[in-house]
Amino acid sequence: MPQLNPDPWFFIMLSSWLTYSMIIQPKILAFITMNPPSSKAPTTLKTTPWIWPWT
């Protein structure tokens, strides 16, 4: 059964993961986010109830 033989695909999988983790991932993580997280506490807005004219 050739599906159980890891020789043809194991080296390709290993080299692709090493390429991803060593080359591509640091380049992706080096990008600066456009909206950095802020340290402000979330503010809650005080809402007033809607007064319906027919009640």
Automatic annotation (TrEMBL):
GO terms for biological process: proton motive force-driven ATP synthesis. InterPro entries: ATP8_metazoa (IPR001421), ATPase_protein_8 (IPR050635). GO terms for cellular component: mitochondrial membrane; proton-transporting ATP synthase complex. It is found in: Mitochondrion membrane. Pfam families: ATP-synt_8. It is a single-pass membrane protein. Keywords: ATP synthesis, CF(0), Hydrogen ion transport, Ion transport, Membrane, Mitochondrion, Transmembrane, Transmembrane helix, Transport. Its main location: mitochondrion. GO terms for molecular function: proton transmembrane transporter activity. The chain crosses the membrane at residues 12-32. Belongs to the ATPase protein 8 family. This is ATP synthase complex subunit 8. It comes from Dasyornis broadbenti.
